[in-house]
């Protein structure tokens, strides 16, 4: 049930993703979460469906889907397994888009086809232990050494960092005393085989436990000159521009998590009897379900309006932040209500709603916290009013 007016391709990709997710992901999601297990089988399956190249042009072995089709597929995957959804979202939205938009023909030819085929998973390394919301304060330093660059520093919160074959890494290329701020940052295409590239701490997370999140240490990591992406000093703009797109993916993931929680709550409310009737007969439960369904529908409608604007080539910074903010806060609220509908059974691992609740939380944090989204929306709103 949705308000979206979908075309045939969009309905097809939605059905394909739903069928796959329900057939292969649902049954294993709880186990993968409990064991904190990233499953390569899932990568192979999703690669066969072309899901790692959803936004990649056909000439690079991609499916070349429109933004809405991609987001519909992501929602379906997230309903079944939010950890699988973040893998697809980061890979398709951030590294793939950055190479597509700013890479040379040689970089595109080398990296995009294996990425689209799911042979090389892409990751994104912007944050550092001391630079999260204030991303321009990052300190990882790149210095020239002949034709190469030497990168030193620690990147943090890298989703599926241990599984990635290509990592788009933001580092400073200005000198430490030049203090060029966001203009002193460049982007490098790293691969784990580079000397001085080390996987470090694996985070022990509250949710999305089947998606490994890593720190990466760069210890004089030698990066060939042809791995600089686009123009020196433009890395911050590339990263934030890509996050405009990435945040749509996180919104779709959040909507999927919320939908899974609502569907579970509806089922349970019909089965669970108290005071001689199903709890679904009580208005206290009905009102919760009504509010959950309304917020999810509103979030999806906003997201797809933003995606349609992107498809028309419009700048969507503000709408992308709105969609992410609204969808992720919806996911947290809906999953909280779902736990309440389940009562004590919502608090234990016998049912999946406690996982949905844990998985929802990070969507309000990564790819920009809710507070950062409000800053972006306020800035854009004030600028539009002043123009
Ligand atoms: N698109 C393109 N360019 C943009 C942009 C956008 N959306 N937003 C800003 N820029 C440009 C600006 O135009 C400016 O360039 P000029 O000076 O040439 O005009 C430059 O970037 C600097 O912009 P600001 O002055 O606005 O920068 P700021 O330091 O004030 O920061 C911010 C703005 C919005 C707070 C930003 O730092 C931000 O979004 N922070 C959150 C970071 C974030 O989302 N991190 C998530 C990391 S990924 C992750 O979560 C892990 C994962 O794997 C899932």
Automatic annotation (TrEMBL):
Its EC number is 1.3.8.10. Residues 7-119 form the Acyl-CoA dehydrogenase/oxidase N-terminal domain. Pfam families: Acyl-CoA_dh_1, Acyl-CoA_dh_M, Acyl-CoA_dh_N. It is an enzyme of class 1 (oxidoreductase). Residues 233-380 form the Acyl-CoA dehydrogenase/oxidase C-terminal domain. One of its GO terms (molecular function) is acyl-CoA dehydrogenase activity. Its cofactor is FAD. Gene3D superfamilies: Acyl-CoA dehydrogenase/oxidase, N-terminal domain, Butyryl-CoA Dehydrogenase, subunit A, domain 2, Butyryl-CoA Dehydrogenase, subunit A, domain 3. SUPFAM superfamilies: Acyl-CoA dehydrogenase C-terminal domain-like, Acyl-CoA dehydrogenase NM domain-like. The keyword Cell inner membrane does not apply. Keywords: FAD, Flavoprotein, Oxidoreductase. Residues 123-220 form the Acyl-CoA oxidase/dehydrogenase middle domain. InterPro entries: Acyl-CoA_DH_CS (IPR006089), Acyl-CoA_Oxase/DH_mid-dom (IPR006091), Acyl-CoA_Oxase/DH_mid-dom_sf (IPR046373), AcylCo_DH-like_C (IPR036250), AcylCo_DH/oxidase_C (IPR009075), AcylCoA_DH/ox_N (IPR013786), AcylCoA_DH/ox_N_sf (IPR037069), AcylCoA_DH/oxidase_NM_dom_sf (IPR009100). PANTHER family: ACYL-COA DEHYDROGENASE, ISOVALERYL-COA DEHYDROGENASE, MITOCHONDRIAL-RELATED. Belongs to the acyl-CoA dehydrogenase family. This is Cyclohex-1-ene-1-carbonyl-CoA dehydrogenase.
């Amino acid at each position: 049930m949705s308000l979206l007016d979908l075309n045939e391709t969009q309905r097809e990709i939605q059905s394909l993703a739903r069928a796959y997710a329900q057939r292969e992901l649902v049954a294993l999601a709880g186990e993968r979460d409990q064991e904190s297990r990233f499953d390569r089988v899932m990568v192979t399956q999703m690669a066969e469906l072309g899901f790692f190249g959803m936004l990649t042009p056909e000439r690079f072995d991609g499916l070349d889907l429109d933004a809405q089709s991609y987001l519909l597929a992501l929602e379906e995957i997230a309903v079944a397994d939010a950890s699988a959804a973040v893998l697809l979202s980061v890979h398709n939205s951030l590294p793939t888009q950055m190479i597509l938009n700013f890479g040379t023909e040689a970089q595109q030819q080398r990296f995009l086809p294996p990425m689209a085929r799911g042979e090389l998973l892409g990751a994104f390394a912007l944050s550092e232990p001391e630079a999260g919301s204030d991303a321009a304060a990052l300190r990882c330093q790149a210095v020239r050494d002949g034709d190469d660059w030497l990168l030193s520093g620690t990147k943090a919160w890298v989703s599926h960092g241990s599984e990635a074959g290509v990592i788009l890494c933001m580092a400073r290329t200005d000198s430490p005393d030049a203090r060029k701020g966001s203009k002193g940052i460049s982007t490098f295409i790293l691969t784990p085989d580079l000397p001085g590239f080390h996987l470090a701490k694996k985070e022990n997370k509250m949710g999305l436990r089947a998606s490994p999140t890593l720190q990466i240490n760069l210890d004089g990591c030698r990066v060939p000159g042809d791995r600089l992406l686009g123009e020196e000093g433009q890395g911050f703009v590339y990263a934030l521009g890509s996050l405009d797109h990435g945040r749509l993916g996180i919104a779709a993931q959040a909507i999927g998590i919320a939908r899974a929680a609502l569907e579970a709550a509806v089922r349970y409310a019909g089965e669970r009897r108290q005071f001689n009737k199903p709890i679904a007969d009580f208005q206290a439960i009905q009102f919760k379900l009504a509010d959950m369904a309304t917020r999810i529908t509103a979030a999806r409608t906003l997201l797809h309006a933003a995606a349609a604007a992107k498809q028309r080539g419009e700048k969507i910074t503000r709408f992308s932040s709105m969609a992410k903010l609204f969808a992720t806060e919806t996911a947290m609220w809906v999953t909280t209500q779902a736990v309440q509908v389940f009562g004590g059974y919502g608090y234990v691992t016998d049912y999946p709603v406690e996982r949905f609740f844990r998985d929802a939380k990070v969507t309000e944090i990564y790819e920009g916290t809710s507070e950062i989204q409000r800053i972006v929306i306020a800035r854009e709103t004030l600028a539009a009013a002043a123009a």
